[in-house]
Design brief:
Involved in chromosome partition. Localize to both poles of the predivisional cell following completion of DNA replication. With 274 residues, the protein is α/β, with parallel strands linked by helices. It contains 13 helices and eight strands. An eight-stranded mixed sheet has the order 3-4-2-5-1-6-7-8, with helices on both faces. α10 links the parallel β7 (192-201) and β8. Bound molecules: adenosine-5'-diphosphate and magnesium ion. Residues 24-25, 48, 52 line the site of magnesium ion.
Length: 274
């Protein structure tokens, strides 16, 4: 089993939704931690200039000498910018504010949409000879369908779409799906939707159940069975520089992300070559 895992190409999953505050970063951090907890070797790439995934994993802004920016523009290799986290088997390519300027910097280049893909392919080439190569890459995207998100989609195997359980959950989803279709047609024919993850579910909100039903009616079995509850421990964890799973493993939020991780692996099982 170990050998089969080693031979398989690492899976690249992108957390994307152009809406802010829907749970992209929280899902990148906690799904990443949960996957690491069940034995996967996970690399998170923080592509949001806000750097919330980096901060939430305890990587101090001051400690970020190099970042995903340097890897995108080809100034450094990804291996050079990756740093370990407090979570065993989980590392991160942190973000810096430099990412704000990257769009303008690379706009004129013909390979502008493939910067991340190229950096990742070079990284995989060197990483596969190591004793414990990365098996999952999770990319945290900014709240926009800009060139950074396009780079993520062009490099991805599949998209994980976090949707907040609120009245306007589906609003903007068609725009995201259209963008994914465009990227599939032009840049990355293999791109799929891995799944839609419903986040911040609050049973006390009488609307929330209806939202879940609507999203399931609209997206069918693309929606993961696991629904992430609204949970105060999840929102507290980042200010301690820890994933929720380290901050409070037993809280409902952590347990939901562990369930989501096993569901993600299960879906992978269907796709991985035997
Ligand atoms: P995005 O990356 O899409 O902008 P975040 O993951 O940063 O969204 O989440 C937005 C805010 O909601 C953050 O303050 C985060 O801590 C909080 N949050 C996310 N998921 C949950 C949850 N399940 N329960 C409680 N708060 C959450
Ligand atoms: Mg975010």
């Amino acid at each position: 089993e170990g050998d089969a895992k080693r031979a398989a190409k690492p899976r690249v999953l992108v957390m994307a939704n152009q809406k802010g505050g829907v749970g992209k970063t929280t899902t990148a951090i906690n799904l990443g931690t949960a996957l690491a907890a069940i034995g996967e070797r996970v690399l998170i790439i923080d592509l949001d200039p806000q750097g919330n995934a980096s901060t939430g994993l305890g990587i101090d802004r001051k400690a970020r000498a190099t970042s995903s920016y340097d890897a995108l523009i080809g100034e450094r290799s990804l291996s050079e910018v990756i740093t370990p986290t407090a979570v065993p088997r989980l590392s991160i390519a942190p973000s810096t504010m430099d990412l704000l300027g990257v769009e303008l910097e690379i706009a004129g280049e013909s390979d502008r949409s493939y910067k991340l893909r190229k950096a990742l392919l070079a990284f995989f080439e060197s990483d596969r000879t190591r004793p414990d190569p990365v098996t999952y890459v999770l990319v945290d995207c900014p709240p926009s369908l800009n060139l950074l998100t396009i780079n993520a989609l062009a490099a991805a195997d599949a998209v994980v779409v976090p949707l907040q359980c609120e009245f306007f959950a589906l609003e903007g989803l068609s725009q995201l799906l259209t963008t994914v279709d465009q990227v599939r047609r032009t840049l990355n024919p293999a791109l799929t939707i891995h799944g839609v993850v419903l986040t911040m579910f609050d049973p006390r909100n009488s609307l929330a159940g209806q939202v879940v039903a609507d999203v399931r009616a609209h997206m069918g079995d693309k929606v993961y069975d696991t629904v992430i509850p609204r949970n105060v421990r999840i929102s507290e964890a980042p200010s301690h520089g820890k994933p929720a799973l380290l901050y409070d493993l037993r809280c409902a939020g952590s347990q939901a992300y562990l369930k989501l991780a096993s569901e993600v692996i299960q879906r992978e099982g269907r796709w991985r070559p035997a």
